Amino acid sequence: MRPFIKALAAEMIKQHKNYFHSKMIYVSLFVWPFLNFITTYYSFKVFDIGKSKIAYITAENMVVYLLLGYMCMSFFRSLVQSAWNFSFERISGTLELIYLSPVNRAAVLLGNAVSSLFESVFVMLIFSLLVIVMKVEVLIIKILPCITVFFIVTAMAVAWGMFLNSLFLFSRDSDFLFTILEEPMEIFSGVKVPTALFPLWAKAISIIFPLTYAIEAVRRVVLTGSSLYEIREFAVIGIGITVVLFALISVIIKRVESHMRITGNITLF
Amino acid sequence: MIIAEHLKKTYIVKQGKGLFREKQEIQAVRDISLQIEKGKIVGLLGINGAGKTTTIKMLTTLLSPTEGSYFLDDIDGVKYPVEIKKRINMIAGGERMIYWRLTAYENLWYYGQIYNVSNNVLKERIDTLLKLVGLENKKDVPVETFSKGMKQRLQIARGLINDPQYLFLDEPTIGLDAVVSKELRSHIKHLAKEQNKGILITSHYMGEIEELCDYIYIMNDGVLIKKGTVKELTTETFNRKNYVLRLDKHSKEITECICDKLKVVDATVEVKDENDAIYINSRENISMELSRACMEAGLYIREMYEKEPHLEDAIIRLSREVHHEAVY
């Protein structure tokens, strides 16, 4: 266990120093989701939100409703980007050296995912919390369900990040996953529009993204004061998704290394 | 000791363009057996595309051999690659394989962590290695500001961070200037002779191989074509002797006269007159006859020596022979 933790910590520190070398990167990580949020907020302002079919969305809590969506989106988006960063490791040849070492591969993937998760969402998280605190009158929060959902969402996000990281290791041509997963995840996970309003075909797509469940659970505990019992199905689905993703990660890590050792594709970039 | 026997590596590659590409087998290594002893430096030479890098990748467990066996100190490298990884490291030439935005110290610290070197040992080892490669004053400077030679020296330190028993060097001095290359060769010798590490090196610089290697394997087209010490390889390849002769007088007639006298001993002798010297190539040892011929002709010998063939000449000769066999 000790080597695992050492490798995990080393990977987090290395990623921090390698990618977050300038304070400006925090600004860029914040500005993009912030602009998206502002655009969406003012787009929604022209509609009569009071007549929404979704009971918990009101004109008063609209800003918090959207912010929660964007906050969750930042969590998951940062992990798609962290997976993309692995392509740079391939180019610089450092990925080959990681595979030359006896290090636990899962520790490296986890370190990369966790580092990216906390660093990328840091500014967005602070901003969102500030706005939410300013709109405290619209919040109906129960502490225990809120903490529970936070941990489940974080676990799901990390598992999702590791899963994508592992897929990116398969080949230098895995970059297409970035295109496939980035925008569709925002559209179909209910960041802006609740998935309950989606047509059936779009609902079917939304099911595959863990972010869908994360956003819905967060909104319910923050905006409707749902109890643990009321969010039990999200908790079960969230834990289930995390377990399945970790099982897949474990299989993929072994398959990736075996594939690399047969094809030698680790040196291709 | 590393013992690899009959290693083979076949890749399946997709040929052509479009959706339905044909799969084709490519034999990168067809058959190679080699041994690396601790404390010895072994050279792996070949013409481009001979299979050297694939061989190194198999020995470092980055590639699995299609066939053959590989043991490192009695550990089966094919079955237990993780055990091998703990005992080896690799250093490649060039500026890749280090994190440019990190400092020299941070790079070594990261690699030390992933090799699970204990923190107490690691700090001391990083300081020792940085001193060994002359970067102790640059340890907190980002690698991106380093010169090519400094990056390469950091690579050497990185390759030693886990104190490997065996080290694989893939063209470690490529692109370096003469002074830095000399320093690196000195480090490599030190690692083998003083620290008892087994080293396998590939290089296109034959002088480097001649200076460093105790034993050499030569590959061509995925197979081993020759092996031996530098002396064995050159004498086996060049079964004729070369002499250089400088006299007090120099003329075409003198050269012809010497040639006539030597032909009596060795009919195949070739005598060439170039600049101020006479070059003699013969099947036999004719140094005595050569001295006698000069004395009889009343010539004063200013300089006479037997020219040792270089490894580079042997490699060129071997590659020509292999090419000739392939064509005919």
UniProtKB/TrEMBL annotation, chain A:
Q: Known InterPro entries for this protein?
A: ABC2_TM, ABC2_TM_bact-type, Nod_factor_ABC_transporter
Q: Name one GO molecular function term.
A: ABC-type transporter activity
Pfam families associated with the record: ABC2_membrane
Reply yes or no: does the keyword Transmembrane apply: yes
Compartments reported by the entry: Cell membrane; Membrane
Give the record's GO CC terms: plasma membrane
- Domain ABC transmembrane type-2, residue spans: 24-256
Note the topology in the membrane.
Multi-pass membrane protein
Residue intervals passing through the bilayer: 24-44, 64-86, 107-133, 139-170, 191-214, 234-253
Keyword terms of this UniProt record: Cell membrane, Membrane, Transmembrane, Transmembrane helix, Transport
**Family to which the UniProt record says this protein belongs:** Belongs to the ABC-2 integral membrane protein family.
Q: What protein name applies here? A: Transport permease protein
Species for this entry: Sedimentibacter hydroxybenzoicus DSM 7310
TrEMBL record, chain B:
Q: Which UniProt keywords apply?
A: ATP-binding, Nucleotide-binding, Transport
Which InterPro entries does the UniProt entry name for this protein? AAA+_ATPase, ABC_transporter-like_ATP-bd, ABC_transporter-like_CS, ABC_transporter_ATP-binding, P-loop_NTPase
Molecular function (GO) terms for this protein are: ATP binding; ATP hydrolysis activity
Q: Which PROSITE patterns match?
A: ABC_TRANSPORTER_1 (PS00211), ABC_TRANSPORTER_2 (PS50893)
Q: Where is the ABC transporter domain?
A: 7-246
Pfam families per UniProt: ABC_tran
Which PANTHER family does the UniProt record give?
ABC TRANSPORTER ATP-BINDING PROTEIN, ABC TRANSPORTER, ATP-BINDING PROTEIN
Question: What is the designated name of this protein?
Answer: ABC transporter ATP-binding protein
Q: Which organism is it from?
A: Sedimentibacter hydroxybenzoicus DSM 7310
